[in-house]
């Protein structure tokens, strides 16, 4: 669903156009609309519906890669795109612990983009990887910066909820007072 959310968020973005979609071999060669069951509210964007699904390997007809690959295949695939010169914005866990990869929450640590300079040694082609923490960690990190919100609004509870795909019937809750 993360890939679909990327598509939904980019659909009418003034600076990005979805030029390519890529997926596993069982979807390759099909139109995205035929290969994908749209699970989000609203309709699948028409412009994406007709894109042919390609292999998740460079080259792709795009300038930037948004990746929502499962962690077990993301490291090799995202790394190959970075090596080929593509900027990769990843939601995967594959590179989260690498010292030269920004684990970015723009509202909290945008200065971590300075780590991209260190990636130039790993990817001399100019590609790089930026990733984000998992969804519940983002909320915990925002907790510290949200003390400002408490002062301004009086809100005191920070609640983060996430679901684990492996445990489809469970929802994990985290809450703490700011």
Describe this structure in words.
- It is built from eight helices and seven strands.
- With 178 residues, the protein is of the alpha/beta class.
- It has a three-stranded parallel sheet.
- Helix 4 (71-83) links the parallel strand 3 (65-67) and strand 4.
- It is globular and about 55 Å long.
Keywords:
2 domains; three-stranded parallel sheet; 8 helices; 178 residues; 16% strand; two-stranded parallel ribbon; alpha/beta; single chain; Rossmann fold
What is this structure's SSE topology?
Layout: H1 2-10, E1 21-22, H2 32-35, H3 46-49, E2 53-54, E3 65-67, H4 71-83, E4 87-90, H5 106-109, H6 116-122, E5 128-131, H7 135-145, H8 147-153, E6 157-163, E7 171-177
Parallel strand pairs: 1-2, 3-4, 4-5
Antiparallel strand pairs: 6-7
**Would you tell me the structural class of the helices and strands?**
alpha/beta
Number of strands: 7
CATH superfamily of the largest domain: NAD(P)-binding Rossmann-like Domain
Q: What distance separates the N and C termini? A: 30 Å
In the CATH hierarchy, the architecture of the largest domain is 3-Layer(aba) Sandwich
Gross morphology: globular
Number of helices: 8
Helical residues, percent: 25-40%
